[in-house]
UniProtKB/TrEMBL annotation:
InterPro entries: Cellulose_Degrad_GH3 (IPR051915), Fn3-like (IPR026891), GH (IPR017853), Glyco_hydro_3_C (IPR002772), Glyco_hydro_3_C_sf (IPR036881), Glyco_hydro_3_N (IPR001764), Glyco_hydro_3_N_sf (IPR036962), Ig-like_fold (IPR013783). This is Glycoside hydrolase family 3 N-terminal domain-containing protein. SUPFAM superfamilies: (Trans)glycosidases, Beta-D-glucan exohydrolase, C-terminal domain. Residues 707-776 form the Fibronectin type III-like domain. Residues 1-17 form the signal peptide. One of its GO terms (molecular function) is hydrolase activity. The keyword Glycoprotein does not apply. Keywords: Hydrolase, Signal.
């Protein structure tokens, strides 16, 4: 930082090195609050603002051959800007230009993070360690790590316990390499399938999102605060605050138009649940809500998040979103005003390092931002560093990283998450599972053997041997079969197509497995915005890349791109029994496949073990029980088509009905289940009201399997509009053939509440309908219960 407040510098210079050595903030026996208060009392204004600066991390090291070390730029950042953290130090992808050759592998990563921390501590006056923040929603975005299914696939498991275990593994891999903060959970609601980032979400339902989000937080941060110091956990960063996923026209980061009641009833519900779970950091969004940019939304960031909900972590801007107040939203005229508006709204930390810095210092000097507000922000970031134990033990054991990262347990866990995420949409005449005695199998399609197409956005380059494609999974499963592979066509490009070869292979086969869909695979010819979002155009358009999803790739249609549908139609025309496997990041229009293809599996982006998991389902070694976390439309004109819309019931269109092609919660199994004996008991009064529900589920088939029991409610009469139905409980349960299990749920007042005309959250007295079934449309059991008094929700 070029500008230095001399008065504070002179005061700080009066403290001798010996005084600092024995300063109370270095005493691990003191409380976090005591240590924070002491440390901030010793800091200059430029040291404080430096703590709020988080530049791009991958520029802070250099690697030549097998030798790596910190860069001169990093040394300058510590000396001149006194930075408090780095984002994406270990990140590798086409945007960062970090590859398998010049990026950091786990052991190298641990060495660099140790060097980064050592230099910061030894070359700054107060020896404050850095927060090292990493992308981590479906695995640490670094070389050699375990790549799990993307969030939309995670949600398809309907298994929060499994997702918590996955988050624990991700956190362990991050911490073993020396970083300490993971970006996740993403709690955006996906009601707009044209939006490019649907794959990063847990779907369209706020309750399902909340349960998955809490699992990620617990997995990242641990069961209790002291777990943050055990070397296996990281601080979680929730994103994006708030209502990011429903921008106008599906344009990423565009304006959001939601009413206050819808905002709090739906979009803020999973945020509140995350705050109550102790999430340590919240990230703002690029979008605006009703004309107010998220990074400038004081009402939400300060009034709601801080004052009403008691959030005591720190708020960080999304990359360059402070600058975006000036350059994108045009709500301020200068960089100084952008910094002032963001800071005063409640944004504590600048991601990217170009939004605060001198502009914020100028705002302090001009009186636009008080130093008390700066202190408030700095205290929050310091508190997280103390909670993580960074002041007492900032280093990791370098040799341990390669033992922990992508170990055998984590690989098996990636396989299990992928298995449980696979959703069977159709299985006409029980074509699945396939017979293991098959001799001739055709594997066809754009995504059958494309490693990066099955990994999703925010994925680092990985060694080929670390990824199992669908073709490879089938080859592993059926080593004695004649497996003929023909790509047939690409996801988008139409010049590299050979449909006749695919048809010939299908004719020679006993079954054709056609793997189609989309891709979020970035390549090195793609151009990127300052924020890291990809641009749709590329430098070389003679052959189109596959990428049609992932940040920046919004769609105006939802058809299978290129000649994929033509390929599928040609294979079906052969008469060979055909299974369609979909690998993609968003719902696509599947009307023709739904009518004409005998069997359809949806695997979303299944991660590194996707090929093995899909093969397990195809050949009956795993009984699918994935359920859709989003509704699949029949037409672009139906959007939005989410299931929990407010009354009145939707009317049909001239061309089609209003129902989705596949509803929220839908998914088939090789087993058949029967529901019975629904019982309900209401007890307690007021805030202590409790509704206990039990039912029996029987597996009446000859195949062991999982059922996902889903509980929905409807407020029969409400003073404001309420949903036609809303999910308020679910349980994935394994039931053996012929076995009956009792499933129990509990409803508390919060889950029955709404925001009335005065925006008070309460349960209104009256009747509620209870619906239990296998999807939002497949309701098996129903009953009603009565709430006899209004119950206000105050927490």
């Amino acid at each position: 930082m070029k500008k230095i407040c001399l008065c504070f510098l002179l005061i700080s210079n009066l403290l001798s090195a010996q005084d600092l050595k024995n300063a109370p903030y270095k005493n691990s026996q003191l409380s976090v609050d005591e240590r924070v208060e002491n440390l901030i009392s010793l800091m200059t204004i430029d040291e404080k603002i430096g703590q709020l600066t988080t530049p791009l991390g991958w520029k802070m090291y250099k690697k030549e051959g097998n030798r790596s070390g910190i860069s001169e730029l990093y040394k300058e950042e510590i000396k001149n800007r006194k930075i408090g953290g780095l984002w994406g130090l270990l990140r590798a992808d086409p945007w960062t230009q970090k590859t398998l050759e010049n990026g950091l592998h786990p052991k190298e990563a641990a060495k660099i993070t140790n060097a980064i921390q050592k230099y910061a501590i030894e070359n700054s006056r107060l020896g404050i360690p850095l927060l090292l923040e990493e992308e981590a929603m479906h695995g640490h975005m670094a070389i050699g790590t375990t790549v799990f299914p993307t969030a939309i696939g995670q949600a398809s498991t309907w298994n929060p316990r499994l997702i918590m275990t996955m988050a624990e593994a991700i956190a362990e891999e991050i911490r073993a390499q020396g970083s300490n903060t993971g970006y996740g959970p993403i709690i955006d609601i996906a009601r707009e399938p044209r939006w490019s980032r649907v794959e990063e979400t847990f779907g369209e339902d706020s309750y399902l999102i909340a349960q998955m989000g809490k699992s990620i937080i617990k997995g990242f941060q641990g069961e209790k605060e002291s777990d943050l110091e055990d070397g296996k956990h990281v601080a979680a960063t929730l994103k994006h605050f708030a209502a990011y996923g429903v921008s106008e026209g599906g344009h990423n980061g565009a304006a959001v138009h939601v009413g206050q009641r819808d905002l709090f009833q739906n979009y803020m519900y999973p945020v509140k649940e995350a705050v109550d779970s102790g999430v340590l950091s919240v990230m703002t969004a690029y979008s605006s809500i009703d004309g107010i940019p998220s990074t400038a939304h004081k009402s939400l960031l300060t009034n709601t998040l801080r004052e009403n909900w008691g959030f005591d972590g720190f708020v960080i801007s999304d990359l360059a979103s402070i600058e975006g107040l000036l350059g994108d939203h045009h709500v301020v005229g200068t960089s100084e005003d952008a910094a002032a508006v963001a800071m005063n709204a409640g944004v504590d930390v600048d991601l990217g390092g170009n939004g605060y810095d001198d502009a914020l210092l100028d705002a302090v000097h001009s009186g636009k931002v008080s130093e008390e507000r700066i202190d408030e922000a700095v205290k929050r970031i310091l508190a997280v560093k103390f909670k993580l134990g960074l002041f007492d033990d900032p280093y990791v054991k370098e040799k341990e990283a390669e033992k922990i990262v992508r170990n055998s347990e984590h690989i098996e866990l990636a396989t299990e998450v992928a298995r449980q995420s696979v959703t069977m949409l159709k299985n006409e005449d029980n074509i699945l599972p396939l017979n293991k005695e098959l001799k001739n199998i055709a594997v066809i399609g754009s995504n059958a053997d494309m490693q990066y197409n099955q990994l999703g956005d925010y994925t680092a380059p990985q060694s080929e041997e670390n990824i199992v494609t669908v073709l490879e999974g089938i080859q592993h499963k059926m080593p004695n079969a004649n497996i003929e592979y023909v790509k047939g066509t690409a996801v988008r490009d139409t010049t590299q197509t050979d449909i006749p070869a695919a048809v010939a292979a299908a004719k020679r086969a006993e079954v054709a497995i056609v793997v189609l869909g989309g891709s979020s695979a970035r390549d090195f010819k793609t151009e990127y915005l300052e924020t890291g979002a990809a641009t749709v155009s590329s430098k070389e358009d003679q052959i189109l890349g596959d990428m049609e999803s992932g940040e920046g790739y919004d769609r105006s249609t939802l058809n299978l791109m290129g000649r994929q549908l033509e390929l599928l139609q040609a294979v079906i025309e052969t008469g060979t029994p055909t299974v369609l496997v979909l690998i993609k990041g968003r719902p696509l229009l599947l009307n023709w496949p739904s009518e004409n293809v005998p069997s359809i599996l949806d695997a979303w982006y299944p991660g590194q073990e996707g090929g093995n998991a899909i093969a397990d389902v195809l050949f009956g070694d795993f009984n699918p029980a994935g359920r859709l976390p989003v509704s699949v439309p029949k037409s672009l004109g139906q959007i939005p088509v989410y299931y929990n819309y407010w009354f009145p019931n939707r009317r049909d269109y001239v061309e089609t009905d209003a129902k989705p092609l596949y509803p929220f919660g839908f998914g088939l199994s090789y087993s058949e289940f029967e529901y019975s004996d629904l019982k309900l008991k209401t007890s307690g009064k007021g805030k202590n009201t409790k509704i206990e529900i039990s039912l029996k589920v029987s597996n009446i088939s000859e195949v062991d399997g999982d059922e996902v029991v889903q509980l929905y409610i409807r407020d029969m009469v409400s003073s404001v509009l309420s949903p036609v139905k809303q999910l308020r409980g679910f349980e994935r349960v394994t039931i053996a053939s012929g076995e009956t299990k009792t499933i129990q749920f509990e409803l508390l007042p919060k889950e029955l509440s709404l925001f009335n005309a005065e925006m008070k959250q309460l349960v209104e007295a009256g009747a509620f309908k209870l619906m239990i079934g296998s999807s939002s449309e497949d309701i098996r059991l129903e009953t009603t219960f009565e709430i006899t008094e209004n119950i206000e929700i105050t927490k």
